[in-house]
Amino acid sequence: MILMYDRFEVTKVLVIAPLRVAKNTWPNEIVKFEEVNGLTYSIVTGSANERKKALERKADIYIINRENLPWLVEKSGEPFDFDMIVIDELSSFKNWESKRFRALMKVRPKVKRIVGLTGTPSSNGLMDLFAEFKVLDLGKRLGRFISQYRINYFKPDRMNGPVVYTYKPLPWAEQAIYDRISDITISMKATEFLDMPELLSNEYKVYLDEDEQKKYEEMKEQLILQLPGGEVTASNAASLSNKLTQMANGAVYSDDGEINAFHNRKLDALEDLIEAANGKPILVAYWFRHDLTRITERLDKLKVMYQKLDSDESFDKWNAGALQVGLIHPASAGHGLNLQSGGNTLVWFGLNWSLELYQQTVARLWRQGQKAGTVVVEHIVTAGTIDERIVLALKEKDKTQQALIDAVKAEVLR
Per DSSP, what are the bridge partners of residue 251? Predict the structure, then answer.
């Protein structure tokens, strides 16, 4: 509002966000806050015809989902005359080879002001920062080319002959990168500037019996396991990790796609947590399709009111307190959604390696507007399995990200 109507520095703003955030969160927030509720907006989503009409509509702010950015730049036929861009979830531009990144870079020189927002700037390490900051400064601070960035700050780590699979930061690189980006980076922790609820994180351990543990170890060591429903193979380390994670959750896909039940330990733990909640709503994060299938079968037996959260209607029912259990997949509903009105307990039925998805999912409940004094995050962890390694890996990754955030923390209280 100040930039547009007081200083006259901005005339037309483009907001790029995840689809549901673009359709729901941004319009709701614009109306909610007095400082900006006088601004007009147009939501550029839907069919190509609907998007064209939205672009033709006169407004201060145009809100588009990131998947439609290439269409806007290359196919819409409309002039790209935005003088300010706001990227909600800048981390979604960390892949310099993605269509959205390339499309944005085509028009980036035309934009005089750009802001990137994210709570997970380097969820998988410092390599993520290259593309994110190139979007912001056209390569001024970290270099114009990924090869240049790698040479300056990293060294090869895991290799197979001349092929480099991963890179490791040089001993001094971390601080050097932070110093380079500090002048355009502001970090504000919600716990320091907002009245946030307490966050409690627990592990609910479940244990395989001797026979189940033996089969799990057999898969890990031999990469193959014979089950009644068919043969399961793991052709490489990534596939093996995937299979072991499935087994830790209680079921595994055979090579022909059949679901082989392995144990019910996590389902029993989830039932205990639901019972302990005594009717209070619980948000359950799952990862595999068979997780969802098995969870819903158990909830049907318990006669629990539940719904998969994947539509505006389901989000509204959750926030209205009409559901005892909400089922959420981190990859499809992890960013930007306001779910804090529906409950304050999150249960991780199935863990995954992505720190970004993990933190964003937790932030659906642990955020401003949460009325409960405490948000509880329960992790159902199968002891002696890859679950324990995933929990540890998420903690280790968080150290890198936390160092980044702390390195550029804004001294806004001065």
Answer: 261
